[in-house]
Specification:
Elements (H helix, E strand, L loop, with lengths): L6 H11 L14 E5 L2 E4 L4 E4 L2 H4 L8 H11 L12 H13 L6 E5 L2 H16 L4 E4 L8 H5 L16 E4 L19 H13 L6 E4 L15 H11 L3 E5 L24 E4 L10 E5 L1 H6 L12 H16 L2 H22 L3 E7 L2 E6 L9 H13 L2 E2 L1 E3 L5 E4 L7 H24 L1
Parallel strand pairs: 3-13, 5-6, 5-7, 7-8, 8-9
Antiparallel strand pairs: 1-2, 2-3, 4-10, 9-10, 11-12, 12-15, 14-15
Helix pairs in contact: 3-10, 4-10, 7-8, 11-13, 12-13
Bound molecules: pyridoxal-5'-phosphate.
The site of pyridoxal-5'-phosphate (PLP) has 17 residues, from helix 5.
Length: 437
Amino acid sequence: MAKPLSREELKKKRDQYMVPGLKHLYAEPPNFVRGKGQFLYDEKGEEYLDMFAGIVTVSVGHCNDKVLKATIEQLQTLQHTSTVFMTQPMVDLAEQLAKITPGNLSKSYITNSGTEANEAAISMARVATGRHEVIVLRHSYHGQSHLATSLTANHNYRQPTMPASGIAFAENAYCYRCPFKKTPDNCSLECAKDVERVIQTQTSGQPAVMIAEPIQGVGGAITPPDEYFQAVKKILEKYGVLFIADEVQTGFGRTGKHMFGISNWGVQPDMMTMAKGLGNGLPIGACIVTPEIADKAQKAVINTFGGNPVSSATAIAVIETILEEKLMDNAKVVGDHLIEGLKDLQKSFSIIGDVRGKGLMLGIELADPKTKEPLTQECAKVVELCKEQKVVIGKGGLWGNTIRIKPPLNITKQDADRCLKTMQKALESVSAVTAKA
Ligand SMILES: Cc1ncc(COP(=O)(O)O)c(C=O)c1O
């Protein structure tokens, strides 16, 4: 292999040849050239603990041996036919998805990405119901196509162009900043009730579908109360509205214990979309629906790369690995350990306003202790300081003030402890500056 460019050389070349909108997490990004398990390596061979997994995508570890074997075997056997030809890996994957998804979800359409899965799901919901309007939650992120950005209630990811029509926004279940000024002690699930108000006041009263992330990912690990999705589903059923769980981030064991995030709320969605962790880094997405919905969508669909043999064979190996290595359980155990450590950090650092999430999908929101003003710069600084100590963490939230911890599902408690220690040092340094200012 050719010698990689230095970080500085690569940055210069990037600026010359890539569109400026393509932003990286870091102001000074490393040049990652290799990955193994929960570790990344730069061009100088320096090792980094990866606590963000790409963007929440490397589910079973970088270059996982079992998954790699399946990918390479398939690459050497049959790489491509497109969906106009019948191939077994795609159908085997659909069978696997039917087995691991809850309830009656059993008919899949396999795509290249989460964006495309959401596009397909909304289209199918509209065809199946004969209705048009869609309900989404504020602070959501559903992808980058025209429709998916229109479903995304976060200005950072929407271009100033005409959005798609018929989309109404309900308040999200953001307990730390409750839009209804409630606290957990006097919560009356106003956020769930808002879905009905939105149906009555922002739609024809007959929307086709609601799409929601069980835990909002890009939104900053915003985690609804235990009763939230059951209450929402009841309202949707009253108005004949379908429900899509966008499991692009929460799927495949990430939230611990369950294969899919929505199962934490004991709710049965009518449709589910997924991507990211399914391919462990290879491009793939999927939309799975009930037979009743699928039967109403008979018009031909075609996809050049969707369900391609290489991504499909890889995804099957990913699912098998998650099940065989009990990674859902590991996500719960190590996730709980991390939450405990983060709550301890919260006692020492007043700028940690909130610690939230489930399993290995965690958010730490930094805010002014008195005013709750989002601490955006401080969050960016913590992320950069951790990188200097060779620990990769993410950030997000509407104001970019939430640290996101979403590592590969195979990390250990020792990895978690290293992350906590590194964050502690970074927070000490940031808090010292904040205290002086
Ligand atoms: C919840 C959610 N839905 C959809 C998407 C879009 O997926 P993709 O980037 O694969 O198009 C993302 C990506 O971050 C996501 O987090």
